[in-house]
């Protein structure tokens, strides 16, 4: 796994899973940065975690895509106690709205200019 914040996560051998978290945040962001950094640190400890992509539009739409080797890895992340607490705080304080899409990837390709 290449950890370059300026490059997308590369393709993996399918099947694997993605969790696409799309958000619009509130104006109240106290504690968000610290919690987000902790969640990024914590998810990296999940066996089967493959990587994560982030994007933020100037208008405030945020997209995070997490990649997981199998459904068990994704379930471990979903049920982690610290992650669940952050989810509750997100709903109470940080997010105006969000969607979560989970999908099984059946095809994966990539391109890098030489």
From TrEMBL:
It holds the Pfam family ABM. GO terms for molecular function: monooxygenase activity. Keywords: Monooxygenase, Oxidoreductase. It comes from the Bacteria. InterPro entries: ABM_dom (IPR007138), Dimeric_a/b-barrel (IPR011008), Jasmonate_Hydroxylase-like (IPR052936). Residues 16-89 form the ABM domain. This is Heme-degrading monooxygenase HmoA. It comes from Amycolatopsis australiensis.
């Amino acid at each position: 796994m290449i950890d370059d914040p300026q490059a997308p996560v590369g393709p993996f051998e399918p099947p694997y899973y993605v969790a696409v978290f799309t958000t619009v945040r509130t104006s109240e962001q106290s504690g968000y940065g610290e919690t987000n950094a902790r969640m990024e640190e914590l998810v990296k400890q999940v066996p089967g975690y493959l990587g994560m992509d982030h994007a933020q539009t100037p208008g405030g739409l945020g997209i995070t895509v997490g990649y997981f080797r199998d459904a068990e890895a994704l379930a471990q992340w979903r049920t982690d106690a610290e992650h669940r607490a952050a989810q509750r705080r997100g709903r109470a304080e940080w997010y105006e709205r969000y969607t979560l899409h989970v999908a099984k990837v059946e095809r994966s390709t990539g391109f890098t200019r030489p």
